């Protein structure tokens, strides 16, 4: 059974539901903690949902994360804010388990070695997504439903034996479904993570987004032209390769069309013939019924109906009654006399219509035979060309479809020459658009190289060079263009460019990806970015530059960073501290995660700077860092 929406107990803990004692309850949000529909912000104008413009909420964010039984963490809940969230703590406290938990939640590989002695680990998260996010459509396909507050809850459990289960919006789903969703939700950058931008297709897509909206529109035009060219080329190959079979199929269609067109049926004709045949077949009985009705209404006016001795007709009786009442002085009777006069008019009108009906009624055996023959011919067409129950409408639909198919089966020299001309014209359009797309990519690659170079210089990697290589093959157009795109890195002057995830050392890779992500920030659709030890081996001014860039990236995305540098942590919007303490009862190390602010945050930064949380010098330096970071964020 899938985990249900959790409820909040005192102390901020989430509790398990009675419905599933084995599943960890997903993190909940108290109703009183929810943001109003719209609120102002010092960072920008209000936007729907209460998020300040530019905070990345329009892309979506992870609001809560609960980790249970994973590594050093027994049971901890993280409240994740917008913007930049940093995770700090002593070495070995379990900071990296936060990244591990996020990776696991979003479909990453389950490592049973991370499961604590309890034998079961679980991670749950609550996603806040905009209504137009494509994630909702895929989640709905999997049977997931939003929570009461409109968020999407994810859950993942792993046993010590390696068995893993995933839940999405209250439904059990394959882990692959969550992993598929994560490609558009989460990017994790760390020394041992599979990088999203290591895939050539994603590298090309990232460069296209960086090139801007006009380039993307050009690319859409290319894709449409390429699809049209491939369709025409495939049609031409099919007609040439299957000329005999297509000609035979066309002959069958032409024979059927000739048979239908010879009869030239009209829509609804079968129903009209049925009615006419019935009327012709019942002509004598219908005439007798009409004559009897006319005698009753108006009598035998012409004397040819044999109505001598019959009671007085209705018209005469009504007229007599009308005259009798109209001759009185009583107003009520006079009104009734007027009603009788109206009745006389109605009876007279009906009798005229009956006379016309009899005049048109023709008991013609020859005409009846014609109608029956026509109906039989149409019935034969229905049996041959229509599905059961469709009638003559099915025959006409078959004829329309046959005419369309004939245009596709034409293998005459004229038709093949026309199709070949259309194919060549489409290919020329593909070549033209492909060349323009390539030019746009090359121009964007030059701009990207320059921007990333500036970012790397500020991250103590000014000798490194990251660039896009655009290798074009005009004679081999593909669905995305004629280019092979590769993201390359040369770690130092003279080093050969290599794929970026191979050209950087473990300590450099996160900084390289940070520089790339900062450059791509405005165009990258991934809402949540995670950096693990992005500042490894860095100190001094470069550390402050890392914090500055992370804060800039957090204007457009939700960014979570595991760091050991106070210069980075000072830029955070939300600061989480991982504490460890021995659990003597269980004989293991327990970890707690808490948010710090005010003086508690100053003490944590002081600990990171000097190793002493209560150091006066360290606290003064911490306050200075916070002031510098605040000033930089305002700039």
From TrEMBL:
Q: Name one Pfam family in it.
A: SMC_N
Sorted alphabetically, the keyword list is: ATP-binding, Coiled coil, DNA damage, DNA repair, Nucleotide-binding
Q: Which InterPro entries match?
A: DNA_recomb/repair_RecN, P-loop_NTPase, RecF/RecN/SMC_N
Annotated RecF/RecN/SMC N-terminal domain residues: 62-579
Q: What SUPFAM superfamilies does this protein's entry cite?
A: P-loop containing nucleoside triphosphate hydrolases
Q: Name one GO biological process term.
A: SOS response
Compositional bias, Low complexity, is annotated for 20-50
GO MF terms here are:
ATP binding
- Basic and acidic residues bias (residue ranges): 1-12
Where are the residues of the annotated region Disordered?
Answer: 1-60
Q: Which ranges form a coiled coil?
A: 409-436
Per the record, GO CC terms?
bacterial nucleoid
Would the keyword RNA-binding be found if you checked this record's keyword annotation? no
Briefly, what is this protein's role?
A: May be involved in recombinational repair of damaged DNA.
Q: Which PANTHER family does the record associate with it? A: DNA REPAIR PROTEIN RECN
Which family is this protein grouped under? Belongs to the RecN family.
Its recorded name reads: DNA repair protein RecN
- Per the UniProt record, the source organism is Geodermatophilus telluris
């Amino acid at each position: 059974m899938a985990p249900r929406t959790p409820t909040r107990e005192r102390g901020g803990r989430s509790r398990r539901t009675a419905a599933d004692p084995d599943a960890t309850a997903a993190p909940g949000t108290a109703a009183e903690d929810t943001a109003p529909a719209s609120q102002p912000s010092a960072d920008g104008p209000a936007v729907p949902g209460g998020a300040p413009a530019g905070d990345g909420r329009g892309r979506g964010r992870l609001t809560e994360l609960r980790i249970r039984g994973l590594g050093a963490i027994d049971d901890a809940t993280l409240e994740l804010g917008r913007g930049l969230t940093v995770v700090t703590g002593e070495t070995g406290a379990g900071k990296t388990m936060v990244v591990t938990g996020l990776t696991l939640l979003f479909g990453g590989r389950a490592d049973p070695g991370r499961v604590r002695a309890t034998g079961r680990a679980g991670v749950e998260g609550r996603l806040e997504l905009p209504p137009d996010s494509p994630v909702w459509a895929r989640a709905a396909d999997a049977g997931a439903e939003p929570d009461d507050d409109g968020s999407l809850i994810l859950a993942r459990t792993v046993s010590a034996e390696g068995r893993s289960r995933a839940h999405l919006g209250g439904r059990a789903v394959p882990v692959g479904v969550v992993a598929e969703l994560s490609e558009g939700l989460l990017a994790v950058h760390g020394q041992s993570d599979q990088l999203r931008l290591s895939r050539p297709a994603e590298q090309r897509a990232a460069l296209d987004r960086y090139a801007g909206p006009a380039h993307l529109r050009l690319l859409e035009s290319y894709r449409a032209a390429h699809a049209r060219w491939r369709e025409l080329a495939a049609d031409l190959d099919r007609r040439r390769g299957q000329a005999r079979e297509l000609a035979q199929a066309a002959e069958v269609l032409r024979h059927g069309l000739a048979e239908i067109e010879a009869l030239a049926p009209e829509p609804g004709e079968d129903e009209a013939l049925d009615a006419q045949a019935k009327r012709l077949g019942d002509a004598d009985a219908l005439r007798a019924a009409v004559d009897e009705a006319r005698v009753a209404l108006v009598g035998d006016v012409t004397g040819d109906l044999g109505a001598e001795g019959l009671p007085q007709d209705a018209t005469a009786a009504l007229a007599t009654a009308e005259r009798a009442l109209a001759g009185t002085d009583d107003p009520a009777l006079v009104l009734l006399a007027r009603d009788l006069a109206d009745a006389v008019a109605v009876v007279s009108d009906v009798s005229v219509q009956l006379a016309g009906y009899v005049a048109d009624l023709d008991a013609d055996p020859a005409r009846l035979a014609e109608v029956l023959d026509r109906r039989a011919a149409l019935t034969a067409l229905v049996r041959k060309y229509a599905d059961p129950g469709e009638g003559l409408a099915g025959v006409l639909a078959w004829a329309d479809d046959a005419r369309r198919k004939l245009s596709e089966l034409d293998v005459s020299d004229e038709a093949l020459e026309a199709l070949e001309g259309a194919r060549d014209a489409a290919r020329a359009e593909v070549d033209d658009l492909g060349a323009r797309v390539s030019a746009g990519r090359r121009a964007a690659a030059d701009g990207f190289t320059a921007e990333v170079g500036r970012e790397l210089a500020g991250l103590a990697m000014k000798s490194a060079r990251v660039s896009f290589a655009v290798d074009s093959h005009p004679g081999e157009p593909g669905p995305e263009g004629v280019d092979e795109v590769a993201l390359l890195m040369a770690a130092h002057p003279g080093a050969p460019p290599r794929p970026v995830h191979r050209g950087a050392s473990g300590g450099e890779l996160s900084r390289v990806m940070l520089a790339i992500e900062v450059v791509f920030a405005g165009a990258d659709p991934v809402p949540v970015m995670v950096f693990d030890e992005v500042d490894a081996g860095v100190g001094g001014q470069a550390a402050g530059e890392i914090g500055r860039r992370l804060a800039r990236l957090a204007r457009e995305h939700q960014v979570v960073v595991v760091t050991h540098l106070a210069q980075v942590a000072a830029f955070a919007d939300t600061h989480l501290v991982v504490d460890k303490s021995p659990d003597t009862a269980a004989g293991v190390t327990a970890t707690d995660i808490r948010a710090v602010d005010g003086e508690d945050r100053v003490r944590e930064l002081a600990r990171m700077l000097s190793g002493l949380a209560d150091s006066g010098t360290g606290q003064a330096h911490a306050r200075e860092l916070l002031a510098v970071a605040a000033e930089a964020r305002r700039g």
